[in-house]
Amino acid sequence: MSGPERYAQLRATAKIHERPLFRLGHSFSELELQARWFAGDFGKSFTGTAGETIDVVQFGTWNREAGPDFSDAAVRINHREILRGSIEFDIADLNWESHGHATNPAFDQTVLHVFSERGTREFFTRTSANRQVTQLQVDPAALPAVFSSNIPLARPGRCQAPLRGLPEEKISSILDAAAQFRLQRKAQRLERLAGLHGEDEALLQEFAAALGYKQNKLPFTLLAQRLPLKTLRALPNEIEASLFGVAGFLDAPDLAEFKPGTRKYLRVLWDSWWPRRAELERLILPARTWRLSGTRPLNHPQRRLAALAAIAREWPRLRRSLGKEDLGAARRFFAELAHPFWNFHYTLTSQPAGAEMALVGESRITEILANVVLPWRQAQARAAWPDYTKLPARLTNRRLETGAARLFGDDPRRARFLRTVAQQQGLLQIYEDFCLQDESDCAQCPFPEQMQKWV
Ligand code: SF4
């Protein structure tokens, strides 16, 4: 049995229930749910509110016109012929009525009305032509925990004592197996996304998420969904302006306030954005979607957005580098991304920095390789694991520190178990599968006993 298979078996002893998307009491934003819907996180085969079988054949595109949220979608109801049209995603079924969709002809082509909350009285979704639209209720609580941030207290757990007594090779072998399991899961996610949106779009969405990590993963994902690669690359000279415009970063303050270099750059962006603004207006992200405070200036989302624009612009070169067996080719692609403005500025309006800065720093490149490039290789059945084990750990985070404190306590070997990205990922997997599932303060967690049997 392979390492990941053995880990899957070990994991099966825990009562794994994927955690809810958000902590209890968190109110879902419609945008977050729509992004998860479009990413296929709710699945693609459902049962409608009237018991119909619903298969989403094509999730469509984020709609930039007046009308439902997603256009050019395709669904199959009760295994009959494919229906093409739009999909509307609301928080509550009654939003259809209260938002005036029932009388708005722009919603007449809706083939599916999705919502997460159902009112107490029965509600039928109808178009202005009085056609009944199939309804689907989805359950956000059943979503996998991608954006969850439930962190328990960091104190050593029950497994710390037995782990201390285990030889280093055995602990490394458990961490490796958990990391390989996690890599496979990431590969499966990419495969699923590619099945929904095509390889290029799936990759762009994952690169965007990696650039947005962690506070702005949602707006970056939304941008890549709303401005797909084929849209961006249709107007290659306007990629940057479109992304900054749809991000909502191109308001119109007084240009005279800025230094000449900044003024010149902003002028170029605005000149390309304004003619397209009306066409793309409906896709512009609300300012509240962004988390702009608490990030290091070097990692400001506007710098990361410039990197996403450069990635889209250089897409054919990036794809060639991804096709090479040498991981160094992809690493060099990201390291060599450059921009005359963003190599010297933290934000659109900041003063120039004293020294040149990389557009994508070393630690972000490592994260991109670990979370997108190598899972992509794995999905293509190409060698990924040997390179994965060589990626040095450059970052840590609260979840990782908490996991390390719970499993290893003050074991003097603790730092040695977390030197590579693979080891970190293995620890995170164990932490999520066991610590975050545990509701017994370790007493009923099967991990300590199971790992003793690990061979
Ligand atoms: S919940 Fe399980 S894996 Fe986590 S610290 Fe406790 S015993 Fe260890």
Give a written overview of the molecule:
By secondary structure, the protein is an alpha/beta fold. It folds into two domains: 325 residues, no CATH class; 113 residues, no CATH class. The chain is 45% helix and 9% strand. Strands 1, 2, 3, 4, 5, 6 and 7 form a seven-stranded mixed sheet that branches. A hairpin with a 5-residue loop joins strand 1 and strand 2. Helix 1 packs across helix 5, helix 2 packs across helix 7 and helix 13 packs antiparallel against helix 14. The longest helix has 30 residues. The protein is globular and about 70 Å long. Iron/sulfur cluster binds next to helix 16, helix 17 and helix 18. The site of iron/sulfur cluster has 12 residues, from helix 16, helix 17 and helix 18.
